[in-house]
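Problem 12. The chain below contains 93 residues. Write out its predicted structure in token notation.
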Amino acid sequence: MLKELYDGKVIPWERHSRCSAEQSEILKKIGAEEEYFASKMSPDDHERFRALSNLYSELSISDEGDIFAYGFSVGLLIMADAIKEAKAIILND
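Solution.
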């Protein structure tokens, strides 16, 4: 894994999303609702609606970064504790 990370084959901030059938269906519904509201709005309102949608996306991306960092840190703490326990078992402490 470290060699692949070094070689650029693993990019931690990239995630290839596998969209489940349920998620796909929800995305279709969201698209249909956005189209419906866009057709009812004035061009200015439609642009503001798009800007609002983009702000929600930016917030979501920011949250994902925080969640990744937290999960990674927790994983490292678990690994450190497991190593400590393994050493205790090996050394019969």
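Discussion. The two ends are 32 Å apart (CA to CA). Students who got a different answer should revisit the alignment rule from Section 12.3.
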